[in-house]
Amino acid sequence: MITSKTQLVGLFGHPVSHSQSPMMHNTAFSETGLGFAYAAFDVEPENLEDAVAGIRALGLKGINVTIPHKVAIMPMLDEIDPLAKRIGAVNTVVSRDGRLIGYNTDGMGYVRSLVEETGIVLEKQVVTMVGAGGAARAVAFTLAEQGVKEIRIINRSRERAAVLAEHVGTIVPTKIVEQGEGEAAIADSSLLINTTSIGMLPNVQETPVPAEWLHSGLTVSDLIYNPLETRLLKEARAIGATVHSGIGMFVNQGALAFELWTGERAPTGVMREVVLQQLKKTT
Ligand code: NAP
């Protein structure tokens, strides 16, 4: 129940009507009884600065930030956490003692879910990643900081891959996979990650990597959670590879934001359950 003591958090994005975050967070808040509530705010790009002023004026405890504001909001904040600075995007803001601090929980949310769900040891991983967009940056920097052995990047636009490889390469050995070298790169990799939207609803017949390139020694991870099991994951499962779906990243990026706002451990089990139920209804 919302009372005069309720602490408000929410989501700034455009559009936001499709977002699972309000339901996931409000379920978590009601489960824990912490006196928080979460609302979605559809903020047009030209209104972002006023919306950020609104966080201060209305005393919001924090917000999540999604497309198209993850980069644009950065200069409007008082402080940016070092990992978010490296990634170059913010998905969570915390209001602390009147200062707005920007974080990026996407990468850590991904890594936490990957390790919890598959049990892999990050330090042993040779990673091939398809894609070099915003989500790829979050995942690549976090994996690099967590000490994976090597990162290889396959991307449609070589230039975007080159920029990411150059930046991540300052932390861990990183190279671009040139056209025609994809199969060889995956052959001696231990972890394959799809960070593109290839295979996402409604294009469920698409896959970023031919099935013949997969092998049973791989952990295959897809950031997509809509559908829950993409064609890539189905084909990987069929040949005996370990598979990991994007729902864990979504739940854990939210759980880490919850923990930054409340200082309490998030109830990830119920958060995952409510998102799963919702996805089953809509897919
Ligand atoms: P983005 O910044 O737009 O990047 C998209 C990436 O996909 C780029 O590397 C792009 O290549 C590549 N790509 C897109 N369509 C392609 C195609 N038809 N052929 C080849 N490459 C293609 O998007 P993003 O924010 O990183 O999101 C990427 C995916 O991650 C989405 O499916 C999103 O739903 C998912 N995601 C999941 C979570 C989660 O919580 N599980 C969180 C964030 C994102 P170019 O560089 O050549 O354009």
UniProtKB/TrEMBL annotation:
What's the superkingdom here? Bacteria
A GO biological-process term? amino acid biosynthetic process
EC primary class: oxidoreductase
Name of the gene: aroE
Active site residues according to the UniProt entry: K70 (proton acceptor)
Lineage in the entry? Bacteria, Bacillati, Bacillota, Bacilli, Bacillales
Q: Could you give the subunit structure recorded for this chain?
A: Homodimer.
Name the family: Belongs to the shikimate dehydrogenase family.
Protein name as it appears in the record: Shikimate dehydrogenase (NADP(+))
What keywords are annotated for this sequence in UniProt? Amino-acid biosynthesis, Aromatic amino acid biosynthesis, NADP, Oxidoreductase
Q: Which residues are in the SDH C-terminal domain?
A: 246-276
List the CDD domains hit by this protein, alphabetically.
NAD_bind_Shikimate_DH
Q: What reaction is this protein's catalytic activity?
A: shikimate + NAD(+) = 3-dehydroshikimate + NADH + H(+); L-quinate + NAD(+) = 3-dehydroquinate + NADH + H(+); shikimate + NADP(+) = 3-dehydroshikimate + NADPH + H(+)
Chain residues that bind NADP(+): G131, A132, G133, G134, A135, L223, G246
For shikimate, which residues are the binding ones? S19, Q20, S21, T66, N91, D106, Y225, Q253
Q: What does this protein do?
A: Involved in the biosynthesis of the chorismate, which leads to the biosynthesis of aromatic amino acids. Catalyzes the reversible NADPH linked reduction of 3-dehydroshikimate (DHSA) to yield shikimate (SA).
Q: Does the keyword Ribonucleoprotein apply?
A: no
- InterPro entries given in the database record: Aminoacid_DH-like_N_sf, NAD(P)-bd_dom_sf, SDH_C, Shikimate_DH, Shikimate_DH-bd_N, Shikimate_DH_fam, Shikm_DH/Glu-tRNA_Rdtase
Enzyme Commission number, as recorded: 1.1.1.25
Residues covered by the Quinate/shikimate 5-dehydrogenase/glutamyl-tRNA reductase domain: 121-196
- Tagged with keyword Amino-acid biosynthesis: yes
Metabolic or biological pathway: Aromatic compound metabolism; 3,4-dihydroxybenzoate biosynthesis; 3-dehydroquinate from D-quinate (NAD(+) route); Metabolic intermediate biosynthesis; chorismate biosynthesis; chorismate from D-erythrose 4-phosphate and phosphoenolpyruvate: step 4/7
For the Shikimate dehydrogenase substrate binding N-terminal domain, which residue ranges apply?
11-93
MF terms per GO, please?
Answer: NADP binding; quinate 3-dehydrogenase (NAD+) activity; shikimate 3-dehydrogenase (NAD+) activity; shikimate 3-dehydrogenase (NADP+) activity
